[in-house]
Design goal:
Layout: H1 8-36, H2 39-68
């Protein structure tokens, strides 16, 4: 993906802001969740939910690579 020079700074600023906001949001969600459910179960569920997303992203990347070639 290519980003035009005139929107470089706002784009990366927004990306940084979203990624910085993810840490406190994750603590706010998963902290209380781990009080209710065992920590091991939260990790297993999170890992299982990550697998379909990884397959979806990998499938999209391979599809784009096929189109480019």
């Amino acid at each position: 993906m290519t980003i035009q020079k005139n929107i470089h700074t706002p784009t990366f600023g927004l990306l940084t802001a979203f990624s910085t906001f993810g840490t406190p949001l994750g603590m706010a969600v998963f902290g209380p969740l781990c009080d209710v459910i065992a920590v091991q179960a939260v990790f297993v569920i999170g890992g299982l939910l990550t697998l379909p997303v990884a397959v979806w992203v990998l499938h999209g990347a391979l599809a784009r690579q096929t189109v480019i070639q």
